[in-house]
Design a protein that fits this description.
Elements (H helix, E strand, L loop, with lengths): L1 E7 L7 H5 L6 E5 L2 H7 L6 E4 L6 H10 L1 E4 L8 H10 L3 E8 L4 H9 L11 E6 L2 E7 L2 E6 L5 E5 L5 E7 L5 E6 L9 E2 L5 E6 L3 E6 L30 H7 L1
Length: 249
């Protein structure tokens, strides 16, 4: 079993925060042109997967010398990212992380949506960085305890169909076994509590959590009566709108 597999994809440079979270011992795979961004960020994948229609020639030459290449036809039913995920699942990792970015909305939805594929259910931890936005994907029945930046914003979305018996604690507006319909605002723009630890669970469905994880560079949570540090006083990355706050409360 491989502890961590990281898949680098997309058409945008990698966010430094995402690169910093890649474990030193992880197996890193690049998806087509994602190899260019991986190498530019100082990350050297051991595998390259896709139809290779967007990777640059210098990176392809590098891959021929330093990585295993799994080339696919351009005419296919799956995206390159889906092919890479299927490759990773066969290696039975404990943790799977997708790192990417880009300004095409269809590619973004397809990439994040691929993390809800039934074949990934067996992987204990599934997460992604899309630009500087972190995402955790929980397949039900399942649960997760997350360490997030206190006071930051997080959202729960059912991107793959209805999620049942969704509960969350450690936030301003807890949820207790609620049903989240597909892509509705009831779980959007919640606020992480003072200690930054939240617990999420669901009985069925695939839940996507948009959050701000507490990184090694972040200051620890402050205890009661202690002046907050710069990190804990940071404004949440997403500003709650009036309507989303009402639906979450």
């Amino acid at each position: 079993m491989n502890e961590s597999i990281v898949i680098i994809t997309g058409s945008a440079p990698l966010a430094p925060a995402a690169v910093d979270t890649i474990p030193d011992e992880a197996i890193v795979l690049a998806v087509d042109g994602g190899l260019d961004h991986a190498l530019a960020a100082g990350v050297q994948p051991s595998g390259l997967i896709g139809d290779l229609d967007s990777v640059t020639e210098p990176s392809l030459v590098w891959a021929a010398r330093n990585a295993t290449i799994d080339r696919h036809p351009t005419d296919k039913d799956q995206t390159d990212t889906e092919l890479a995920l299927a490759f990773a699942v066969a290696m039975t990792p404990d943790r799977l992380m997708l790192v990417g970015g880009g300004d095409r909305l269809d590619h973004t939805i397809a990439a994040l949506g691929a993390l809800g594929a039934p074949a990934l259910t067996s992987i204990p931890t599934i997460e992604a960085w899309w630009g500087d936005q972190h995402v955790r994907v929980i397949h039900g029945p399942g649960a997760a305890s997350l360490e997030l930046v206190p006071g930051s914003t997080l959202s729960l979305l059912a991107l793959h169909g209805t999620c049942r018996a969704v509960s969350i604690s450690g936030v301003r507006w807890p949820l207790d076994e609620v049903e989240l319909a597909p892509v509705v605002g009831h779980g959007v723009s919640n606020e992480v509590g003072d200690d930054g630890v939240i617990d999420v669970q669901l009985s069925a469905g695939v839940l996507t959590v948009f959050d701000r994880p507490r990184l090694a560079t972040d200051s620890p949570p402050t205890s009661a009566g202690t002046a907050p540090t710069t990190t804990t006083a940071t404004t949440p990355t997403t500003t709650s709108s009036d309507d989303s706050t009402e639906t979450t409360a």
